[in-house]
Design brief:
425 residues, alpha/beta, Rossmann fold, 2 domains, 6-stranded parallel β-sheet, 14 helices, globular
């Protein structure tokens, strides 16, 4: 057993121990992530926490909404109001059933948390009072708490944590919170979230709704602007994935083309037409490919999936992932020689652009608003090229990989240093 060594007294030539740098009060060793159940949002938070060295020292909380039935149409409401309304509707339903059946039934109080009886009770709910109490009560022993949140539903609770425990926490909100940026210690958001302030956007937005378009004011000094979305992919992750997936991917004929297909959004509308365009393009480049692997997202429409599978499913060069575990996504990122990606997902594009490998995007002409600004910025940097079906996939080209997550982590450390705090895992 190795002997326990006490820290040496400080000297000009050695790193000072915590006890000589303000003690535990200025050292962050833990974090909490507040998500909204969306993997795209939560992965941004976890990616930042990972880049800060706290990957194994964070706890995930979620702001959950009631689900099912009419609840799917009520997501525009504030979370707290949505839950109260759901609770009332559940109680009305209970009493209605009792009256109709005319039976004596013992009523069990229904919790308004986790969506009542909607099957979400197993999720760790983001409880404001609990988190604030934890931050204050454990401060002297464990030091400050880093809070990282992302998504519209997390804005209220994250800002309230900072307001109620300002001296004990450092709150980072990822994605633009629309207004009141001073309610957070730091806001991390892509450049294209400020597209509504550009002259082009002002021409597209009717005057009577301009004030409701995010953001309402230019970024200030505590806003960190990124090119794309934060994520969990870094070189260490890719090295590990390359080793883990070696047996599955090393024997594949090269070059390996990976195709990631998402799904239409309100700002990137498409359907079978784009699927047919994609299939035609892939058939045209097959001659320059050794092998092709295709993956779909949870948002991919069935009609799009069916077109791709029907046209390419029997091709000996093509493998289509069936959605069964294990998910080969990390293996694809590590072993691919080039990517073709649909234009609808900022997160998906940001991940593949962090590899430095050729990235071809299809469907950008069908996107508008902030998506167009995002695609334009990547094209100007030489990071992406349009997929036309005339490409030679064996041709290699490169660019400085997107490194948004690591750069954002550096800005967090710099801001903490201004407060006299630092992160030590």
């Amino acid at each position: 057993m190795r002997p326990i060594r006490l820290p040496e007294p400080p000297s000009p030539t050695m790193v000072k121990a915590d006890i000589f740098e303000g003690g535990v009060y200025g050292v962050i060793r833990r974090a909490i992530v507040i998500g909204n159940g969306s993997s795209g949002s939560e992965n941004q938070c976890i990616g930042l926490v990972q880049a800060l060295g706290l990957a194994d020292k964070h706890v995930l909380y979620r702001v959950t909404r009631p689900r099912g039935g009419i609840n799917e149409w009520l997501h525009w409401l504030p979370v707290s109001l949505h839950k109260r309304l759901d609770y009332i509707m559940i109680q009305i339903g209970v009493y209605t059933r009792i009256l109709l059946r005319s039976k004596r039934t013992k009523l069990v109080p229904l919790s308004s948390e986790n969506g009542g009886s909607m099957g979400l009770s197993c999720i760790l709910e983001a409880d404001l009072k609990h988190i604030v109490s934890m931050a204050k009560e454990t401060y002297e022993k464990d030091g400050p708490l880093l809070v990282v949140a992302s998504g519209r539903d997390t804005i209220t609770i994250a800002s309230s944590i900072r307001r109620m425990a300002k001296e004990n926490v450092f709150v980072v909100q990822i994605q633009h919170p629309r207004l009141h940026l001073n309610r957070f210690d730091m806001v991390i958001t892509p450049h294209h979230d400020y597209y509504p302030l550009t002259p082009q956007a002002q021409e597209q937005v009717p005057r009577f709704i301009r004030k409701w378009i995010t953001p309402r004011e230019p970024p200030d000094q505590h806003v960190v602007l990124t090119v794309g979305a934060l994520h969990r992919i870094d070189f260490a992750t890719l090295r590990s994935a390359a080793s883990a997936w070696h047996d599955a991917f090393a024997p594949l004929p090269k070059p390996l083309l990976v195709v990631n297909i998402g799904g239409p959004t309100s700002s990137c509308r498409y359907g079978v037409d784009l699927a047919k365009q994609l299939v035609t393009g892939l058939l045209s480049v097959l001659a320059s490919c050794g092998s092709v692997r295709i993956s779909f997202s949870d948002r991919t429409p069935e009609k799009v999936y069916n077109v791709v599978v029907r046209e390419l499913g029997d091709n000996p060069k093509v493998y289509i992932w069936d959605g069964q575990e294990p998910n080969p996504h990390l293996g694809h990122l590590a072993w691919a020689d080039a990517f073709v990606v649909t234009a609808d997902s900022v997160s998906m594009i940001s991940e593949v652009c962090s590899t430095g490998k050729p990235v071809y995007v299809i469907g950008t002409e069908r996107c508008k608003w902030k998506y167009s600004a995002f695609h334009k910025s990547l094209k100007e940097r030489g990071v992406i090229r349009p997929f036309t079906g005339t490409e030679d996939i064996s041709e290699s080209w490169s660019y400085p990989p997107l490194n948004d997550t690591a750069e954002a982590a550096t800005r967090v450390r710099d801001e903490l240093a201004k407060r006299g705090w630092r992160i030590r895992p």
